[in-house]
Design a protein that fits this description.
This protein has about 220 residues and is α/β, with parallel strands linked by helices. The chain has one domain (about 5-220): P-loop containing nucleotide triphosphate hydrolases (Rossmann fold). It has 9 helices and 8 strands. The protein has helices at about 15-25, 35-45, 55-60, 90-100, 105-120, 130-135, 150-160, 170-185, 205-220; strands at about 5-10, 30, 65-70, 75-80, 80-85, 125, 140-145, 195-200. Strands 2-6-1-7-8 form a 5-stranded parallel sheet, sandwiched between helices. A hairpin with a 2-residue loop joins β3 (about 65-70) and β4. α2 (about 35-45) packs across α5 (about 105-120) and α3 packs parallel to α5 (about 105-120). The longest helix is centred in the middle third of the chain and has 17 residues, at about 105-120. It binds 2'-deoxycytidine-5'-monophosphate (DC). 2'-deoxycytidine-5'-monophosphate binds near residues 37, 128 and 129.
């Protein structure tokens, strides 16, 4: 049976950075489930579907052809044959993903894809419902968080480093709104699994967090 590590937490807590580093250290596969919800959101946006058009979202998500490949160890999300990795990292797509991921049909489809990946290989999977819903039997579960101010500053620094414009207050307000939506939705809300270990990364380095997670595996 494959060994799975589940990392959940709010936007900007450092989940993907940590999960990638752990995957590299342990030679596991990193599965970024947020990228799948973002790709679904991009698909809806291209169809001109708005976040509140629930019936259209339910109906059209069935036809979405989303798959995952690994190229040189990097997760590539395909929409049909198109590699959309470079198109899904915008705030607009992130907000649309947060809104449309509340739809049960969207979740059902992507959870199935995620479980198939985890059954085939040792994975570090990050998202919002991995420990609670997708992989309830994961060997290690972590709930990774940080204060909204720290998370906003990290996003801000990332955008500035990419040469983009950024407004720190707006980013923090968006983060708080997104967390609130992800935590209060009816289906699979973001919450700490009963058996997950809470790690607050506000004042920890990336290596300190990765080592803390790896220590949990050794303890099992
Ligand atoms: O982690 P991220 O910012 O790339 O995720 C984008 C949105 O997708 C997030 O706001 C909520 C949704 N999501 C989810 O509902 N469940 C997951 N397992 C991963 C992401």
């Amino acid at each position: 049976m494959s060994i799975n590590i589940a990392i959940d937490g709010p936007a900007g807590a450092g989940k993907s950075t940590i999960a990638k580093l752990i995957a590299k250290k342990l030679a596991y596969i990193y599965v970024d489930t947020g990228a799948m919800y973002r790709t679904m959101a991009l698909y809806f946006m291209r169809l001109g579907i708005k976040a509140d058009e629930t019936d259209k979202i339910t109906c059209m998500c069935r036809d979405a052809d989303i798959s995952i490949e690994y190229r040189d160890g990097v997760q590539v999300v395909l929409l049909g044959d198109e590699n959309v990795n470079g198109l899904i990292r915008t705030e607009e797509v992130g907000n649309m993903a947060s809104a449309t991921s509340a739809n049960p049909a969207v979740r059902e489809k992507l959870v199935e894809l995620q479980r198939k990946l985890a059954a085939k290989a040792d994975v570090v999977m990050d998202g919002r419902d991995i420990g609670t819903v997708v992989l309830p039997d994961a060997k290690v579960k972590v709930y990774l968080t940080a204060s909204s101010a720290v998370r906003a500053k990290r996003r801000y620094d990332e955008l500035i480093a990419r040469g983009e414009q950024a407004d720190l207050d707006k980013i923090e307000a968006d983060i708080i709104e997104r967390d609130n939506r992800d935590m209060t939705r009816e289906i699979s809300p973001l919450k700490q699994a009963d058996d997950a270990v809470l790690i607050d990364s506000s004042y920890m380095t990336i290596d300190e967090v990765a080592d803390a997670v790896i220590a949990l595996i050794d303890k099992e």
